[in-house]
Every structure is written in structure tokens, then in C-alpha cells.
């Protein structure tokens, strides 16, 4: 009698259950880890909340939808960052569920599970999902856009036009890369006969109207802010350096797929035992159009995103690695064939689990052990709640008014702006970035100015004293980080600007 592992049987019989289990477990890991081991939110999440609190139609940080949703989730959780962490994981769950629906429509349910498992190693490894923002929100919208595009082009389901237009409109309100993502979809449609036939109907005109209605407020803001002009093309003298940067970004995306390559090698015949009778995951034949669709969206977003990043000297792939590499797992499954044997199952499970859990382990080690081995400050170790509570209470005791605004060091000020009173954030070094508050208005309504103190007297930096004449520093406040380790105690200089 043959023996087949329970995992393989579940993949064959209950593929949707397997997807939900692995997605929910991964989301639970990234939900609990920051709640337990982070003293402050990662990256620029605090700034996203500060900008979202103002409900601006547009800012220099990009379209407004992710900022608005972050503020709504933050308020719904009682002004606690748990709501934003939960929203980020909801986006991850929606991404992989929509991706599974697409994979199931192309390669069937069982092999769709394999595509989700492979893509999960790439997306989780290349861009962890704790730091909610435009890059995180764009992932489920991109997955839904691909799903509805395939329903239109590959399955001729005209009812999907409305959902497709909603996806495009929300993408335009989420990320500056949305127009490029939509153009990739339109480009594929124009390049195929079925796609051109789909575009000849009347439905695309109604879809365009829906997209315009959704994106119109942001478009009006772009026109008024005079930021519709394209970035300047770099001079010939720097094109070589930009080409090298393109190669670096593209190489980073390729490295992010290392887990998929390793799993494919370990599952190949090279490492198989001769007498091994491996279980096989079947699928119906994949049409040439479906193969073209999968390969195009597996390679085009990565190449285009890295090229734009290299051309304009961006730090990461334009649109995010989670968008650029989402289809990589499905591309490997389609390229493997109609029959996929699962050899050395225990080793494959171990390697997959390590690839998914490694980013969480690295984040945990950075939070708990890096302070003991390095003097470099871990950004998530700052005590955001304690700082916000202290400065809010101090300001209220001194002025008998609630804290309305905070300025000074952008990182510290953003964390204080997360306090339960939600004071406004003023970026005094670049006040045009925070149009809801200016330095004269700040001096009139009052607030707290903070900085990292370099001495026990709490002397403010010269540029800060110049922007706020007559600043009287208070005794610096000492805060303990989540783990101090070898680092000195955090010393924050501060001063109160009394309301007029």
C-alpha cells in the first residue's frame, strides 16, 4: 500500500484550506511580532499616521488612500498601532487569496497552492508586511487587477469590467506606480488577439469613466500642486552610474527569488532517490494565452520597476518588490509542466518554512540581540508610548491646554504625534511638506519642540534655535529603549512654545 503524506493529500483534496492555513499563520506571526517586540512602529509608519491624520487629498509622500486607511484603522483600535498592524496583515491575506484565485483559474487548485507557497517565500522575504503604506496596500490591488484582467482576457467574463475599473481607480489613489501597472495590463491586452477583441467592446469606456470618477480628486490636487511634470531625464554623464544602479536593483529582485530556485533544485531529479515513488500534483493543460499572461506579468513588472528605479536613482524597485515578484511562483509552476512530482517532501517543507520564517527571526534578533552586539540604534526600540505620554502631560501641566502640535526632530516628533491626543506634526525643516501647519501658526497655537540632546543642558541644535527664536530648553528627559544593551540611555531635549 502506498503512503502519501497528509500535506500532499490536503493539497490535492482541500487546496483552499491549505492556502488559508498558511496565509493566516504567516499573518499571525507578523501581527504578534511587532506587538510584542517593537517599542515603536517600523520605517516611516509614524509619519504615515501623522499625514493620514490630516486627511489631505495629496502630499509629497504620494496618493492619499493608504494614509487615510491607516488613520481609520488607528482610530478604530483606540489610537493604538495594533489597528494598523492588523490592516497590514489583512492586505497580505487579501493578496494571497486573490493570487490563489488567479492561479486556480490557470493551473487548477492543487498546483495553485504550490504557486502560492512559492510566491509567499519571495514576497515575505523581499518585503515584510509590518510597515503599512502604499507598497503594502498596492499588493492586494495588484493581485485583484491581475485576477480581473485574466477574467476579461482569458475567460471573456464581461461582468469583471466594473471590478477591474475599481481596482485601477484605487491603485491610482494608492501608489505613484499605478499608471505604469495599468499600462502593463493594457500593453498585454493590445499585444494579444483576445485582448484586442476584449478592448473593442463598449465596456472599456464605462470602465474609464469609473476610473476618472475615483481618481478625480487626486488628479485635481496634482494639477493645483503643479506636480504633473515628469522627472527630468538624467544627463548622459550619469547614465552609466544609473545603469549600474538598475543592475543592482534588478539583482536584488533576482536574489529575492533564491528560495524558489533552491526549492526547484531540491525537487529536481538530481537529488531524487532512484527507488522513490514521489506523489504527483496534476493540472489540466495550460493554454498558450495563459502561459503568455503568466510569463509576461512575472518578468515585465520586475524589469520595468527596476529600470525606473535605476533611471531616477530610487532606492527600491518602483512599485515595490511585492508587486514586481508576485507572479514568480506561478511562473515556475507553469514552466514545470502538467505533472509536478514532490520529491524529498520533508526537506522541501523544512526549506520552505525556513524561507518564510527567516525574516521574522531576523526582525526578532534585531530587536532583542542587536543592541548587545552593536552601538547602532534599532529604530523600533524607541519607546513611542512613553514619549508621547510624557510630553503630552508635561505640556498640559504647564499651559493647562492639550498638546496641539509637535516639531523638531522628525523621527521623535512623528512618534510623539501618535499619542492619544494626536497632536499635529510640523516638519519645521521643510514646512512645505506639512501644509496644514506653518511655523508662525505653530508659534501662535503653541506646542512642543524636541531634539536629541547631546549634553546634559539640553542645548538645542543651532538650526532649530534659528527657526524658533527664544527657545528655552527644559531639562532633558531620559528614556529607556525596549532593550538598551550597549547603547546609552536615550536623552531627548525639549522646549515648550506657549500659545499666544
Task: Tell me what the structure shows.
This protein is mainly α and 500 residues long. The protein has 22 helices and 7 strands. The protein has helices at 6-13, 15-37, 45-52, 65-76, 82-107, 109-126, 134-153, 160-172, 178-191, 193-199, 203-225, 239-256, 258-266, 288-311, 321-324, 328-336, 345-368, 370-373, 384-399, 410-416, 439-445, 462-467; strands spanning 280-282, 339-341, 405-408, 424-425, 447-452, 477-479, 490-497. The protein has a 5-stranded mixed sheet with strand order 4-3-5-7-6. Strands 1-2 form a two-stranded antiparallel ribbon. Helix 6 (109-126) packs across helix 13 (258-266) and helix 7 (134-153) packs parallel to helix 9. The longest helix is centred in the first third of the chain and has 26 residues, at 82-107.
Model regions low in confidence, pLDDT < 50 over at least 5 residues:
none
What is the CA–CA distance across the termini? 86 Å
Mean pLDDT: 88
Q: Give helix % range.
A: 55-70%
**What would the principal axes of the Cα set say about the shape?**
globular
Number of helices: 22
Which strand-content bin applies to the residues? 5-15%
- The helix/strand class is mainly alpha
Q: Major β-sheet, in short?
A: 5 strands, mixed
Strand order of the largest sheet: 4-3-5-7-6
Radius of gyration: 25 Å
What's the count of strands?
7
The H-and-E topology, N to C, reads as HHHHHHHHHHHHHEHHHEHHHEHEHEHEE
